[in-house]
Amino acid sequence: MFIKILSCELDFNFLQCAKILNHFNCSNNSDLYSNKCEIEYDTDVLSYFYIKTALLQSLNESIDFMSKNNTNIVNFNDNAQNDYLKLIDFCIKNKEFTKKIDNNIENLQNCNDDKLNNTLRMTLFQNN
Fold first, then answer.
1. How far is CA 81 from CA 33, 35, 84, 85, 118, in A?
2. pLDDT over 80 (residue 28)
3. In terms of residue numbers, what domain contains 55?
4. Residues near 6 by Cβ (< 8 Å), separated by ≥ 6?
5. Which helix (H) or strand (E) holds 75?
6. Which residues of 15-28 are buried (b: 16+ CB within 10 A; e: fewer)?
7. Residue 125 lies in a domain
């Protein structure tokens, strides 16, 4: 059951990333790195969704990082910052990550669900 929920959350997060990139006039994921997007925002909404989704997509590597660098719940050792940046770089360059975002950007025009199109929720499921 956990894997199913995680899979749905990840799909939802790819959609959210695609909507954000589309909002910034990115036609695909690589536009983000080639300065073809018009990125202006007051919050770190892009990094909130983008990095979270990249880390979830590479969950095994993310868990390995946490196991190696975490000294107490979320208190990381001194070397963790460089390792964390390397992890993010690895995750966002993952071909599957890029492909899923690109596919979601392409499919945005076919989504006619106003509720889904207009939400910026961080998660699909709500824990009550």
1. 22, 26, 5, 6, 35
2. yes
3. 2-118
4. 56, 59
5. strand 75-76
6. bbbbbbbbebebeb
7. no
> Do the domain assignments include residue 123?
no
Indicate whether 128 belongs to any domain.
Answer: no
Cβ proximity of 61 and 94 under 8 Å: no
Q: Give per-residue pLDDT as tens, 32-77.
A: 888 888 877 777 888 889 999 999 999 999 999 988 887 776 667 7
How far apart are the C-alpha atoms of 125 and 11, rounded to whole Å?
A: 12
Domains of the chain: total: 1
Q: Could you give phi then psi for residue 61, rounded to 5 degrees?
A: -65, -35
- Other CB atoms within 10 A of residue 29 CB: 21
Tokens of 83: 């390792």
CB 76 within 8 Å of CB 98: no
Which of 27, 50, 31 is closest to 120 using CA atoms?
Answer: 50
**CA 114/CA 40 separation, integer angstroms:** 24
Separation of alpha carbons 123 and 118, rounded Å: 14
Predicted model pTM? 0.87
Query: Residue 52 burial (CB < 10 Å; 0-12/13-18/19+)?
Result: middle
